[in-house]
Design goal:
The protein has about 150 residues and is of the alpha+beta class. The protein contains 3 helices and 7 strands, in the order H-E-E-E-E-E-E-E-H-H. The strands form 3 sheets. It has a 3-stranded antiparallel sheet with strand order 6-5-7, with no helix packed on it. The chain has a two-stranded antiparallel sheet with strand order 1-2. The protein has a two-stranded antiparallel sheet with strand order 3-4.
């Protein structure tokens, strides 16, 4: 590799790690040999792969799975990892406990199979209970979502 190409690659790496505490050679690798040491730039410039970015102090490589706004993404060229919100950690599941009125639960408490219209009715009652619960102020430390685990049928 020409010295000027090696210098350009090193400068890109230095810009990427600026302020992260990572060594510049941690964001460059060769597809055949991934090492934890400084590259010697003896191969062709096409043989080196630069990280796409850095998230939470770790380099991001093509195909890595990350989360943005709670949605899972496979990293690829074109994503901007400089904006905040990217994470390696999947979001925690959130749950809202909703109490259904006893008469709603008793309608379906027997051991028979439910018809499609009864299932649709039960889903509507659950959705309404969730909507009403979400209209109330949420206390600090509580979670959101909808859990109807107390309602069962065969």
């Amino acid at each position: 590799m020409k010295e000027i190409d090696a210098t350009r690659i090193k400068l890109k790496c230095l810009e990427m790690v600026e302020g992260t505490g990572l060594e510049w050679w941690k964001v460059i690798r060769m597809p055949i040999c991934i090492s934890d040491r400084m590259p010697d730039f003896s191969a062709n410039k096409e043989d080196y792969e630069l990280a796409l970015g850095i998230v939470e102090g770790k380099p991001v490589w093509e195909g890595d799975e990350l989360y943005y706004a709670g949605i899972k993404f496979s990293a690829h060229y074109g994503h901007s990892f400089t904006q905040p919100g990217w994470s390696w950690t999947p979001p925690k599941q959130k749950t809202l406990m909703v109490e259904l009125p006893l008469e709603d639960v008793e309608l379906y408490a027997d051991e028979r199979e439910l018809s499609l219209s009864e299932i649709m009715d039960l889903i509507g009652r659950c959705a309404e209970a969730c909507r009403k619960a979400l209209e109330k102020p949420i206390r600090a430390g509580s979670t959101t979502g909808c859990d109807i685990s107390g309602v069962t049928s065969k």
